[in-house]
Amino acid sequence: MEINNIKSQKEQLIVQNVSHSFGFSDILKDISFTLEKGKVTSIVGPSGGGKTTLLHLCAKLLTLETGKIKNSFTSSSFAFQEARLLPWKNVLDNISLGLKAKGIKKEKREEEAKAIALKFGLEEDDFYKFPKDLSGGMKQRVSFARALVINPSLLFLDEPFSALDIGLKKELQTLLIKQIEEKQLSVLFITHDLMEAIKLSDEILVLKAEPVGHIIKKFSFDLPKIQRDNKFVYEQTAKLLSDETIINTFELELK
Ligand SMILES: Nc1ncnc2c1ncn2[C@@H]1O[C@H](COP(=O)(O)OP(=O)(O)OP(=O)(O)O)[C@@H](O)[C@H]1O
């Protein structure tokens, strides 16, 4: 038991002095932060600031050129703004892709995929539908179920809520918070949405694009996510939006 505790404490993502360029364009400069087990770190900033590039470097979807990234989490998965489902596979088969890759038998795969599909608000009638017959919201439910069915210790999220209506956004955020609390899930989360970041994060890194993407400020929040009501989110948002660095980063106009 104790050995497990020691092992789990060591799970972290350490990003040290990471810079990145595409050709002659410098995109990121000297980025450093650490994501601990059970924590959520959000990267917020204006469009084009290099948020997705940073996430891709952390997830090894891009080759690291400068700096160090050490990921000691035991497993990871992804969910993106678009659900990216395989069009030739039905809902259950899409959800259980990661289980298949782990060598889990078909019967067990289906059982686990069905359980998580129901948890994420899909219905039995949806199980054998193909992506072309699903709404955008249903596709995103499948995408979340697929990412979480393998019980990852680290989840990479790139604006997964941005195309959803407000009700579904809230529902999926609540389900995600539950997973974070129950399973000590860690999340690296990209968003444009400051309120969303305040609701979900332990730490927010603000990325400024000019002249090259760099972290201009870090904010931490201690209140348990489950206790963050609208009042907390609005108050914290107002506080952050009155910070001069945030005003400059987002080029907000004060009237
Ligand atoms: N594969 C690539 N090759 C060349 N340039 C790229 C590539 N990927 C991204 N870029 C450029 O890098 C910059 C940062 O892009 P990135 O997608 O990381 O920003 P972002 O902050 O995630 O933006 P958004 O919020 O709009 O998604 C942009 O100018 C983009 O055009």
From TrEMBL:
Q: Which InterPro entries match?
A: AAA+_ATPase, ABC_transporter-like_ATP-bd, ABC_transporter-like_CS, ABC_transporter_ATP-bind, P-loop_NTPase
Signal peptide range equals none
Regions annotated as coiled coil: none
Say yes or no: keyword ATP-binding present.
yes
Q: What range(s) does the ABC transporter domain occupy? A: 13-237
Which keywords label this protein? Answer: ATP-binding, Nucleotide-binding, Transport
Q: Which Gene3D superfamilies match?
A: P-loop containing nucleotide triphosphate hydrolases
Source organism, top-level taxon? Bacteria
User: PROSITE patterns of this UniProt entry?
Assistant: ABC_TRANSPORTER_1 (PS00211), ABC_TRANSPORTER_2 (PS50893)
Q: Does the keyword Chloroplast apply?
A: no
SUPFAM superfamilies the UniProt entry points to: P-loop containing nucleoside triphosphate hydrolases
The UniProt GO MF terms for this protein read: ATP binding; ATP hydrolysis activity
Q: What is this protein called?
A: Nitrate/sulfonate/bicarbonate ABC transporter, ATP-binding protein
The species is Arcobacter acticola
